[in-house]
């Protein structure tokens, strides 16, 4: 918590430094860029865990499943952008193939993006069987990329 508060406090300095596009992360921001993508990935993990609690364990409290699905759509929208060139070293679990096989990585990203969109549609439909199938596909898409592009 303290760490997050400190990070939030340092936001002021970041705001003053100006925006950084994915294609030109400067050397002195590589560490932050790695942490940033891990934070976005952790968010996805939290969203999937939230959906598991509701779909498998039946918890009816917490954020609505439609919001969870919408957030998955948002976080999977452009995964390759989270892996800018030059952020392939340091405290990262990304394998070199993320960059050397950018096409394959983009394909896995697309699968996750499409799975999230289908899950959102399934949530809106309210059909439980469709919902479970669509959610499983989301999990499979995460796993599919991790097996290929994340250090085990
Ligand atoms: C296209 C590839 C790809 C997809 C799709 C993908 N991930 Fe990841 N994920 C990665 C890579 C690569 C890393 C390692 C990042 C790093 O350490 O720099 C990672 C790391 C993570 C981490 C660890 C973050 C940390 O704090 O170190 C979590 C949690 C995670 N992913 C969850 C998910 C979930 C949940 C999904 C599906 C909704 C998903 N990922 C989809 C490639 C992917």
TrEMBL record:
Superkingdom of origin organism: Bacteria
Record's signal peptide: 1-22
Pfam families: Cytochrom_C_2
InterPro entries named in the record: Cyt_c/b562, Cyt_c_II, Cyt_c_prime, Cyt_c_prime_subgr
Keywords: Electron transport, Heme, Iron, Metal-binding, Signal, Transport
Keyword Plastid: no
Keyword Metal-binding set for record: yes
SUPFAM superfamilies assigned to the protein according to its UniProt record, in alphabetical order: Cytochromes
Name assigned to this protein: Cytochrome c
Protein source organism: Thiohalocapsa halophila
Phylogenetic placement of the source organism: Bacteria, Pseudomonadati, Pseudomonadota, Gammaproteobacteria, Chromatiales
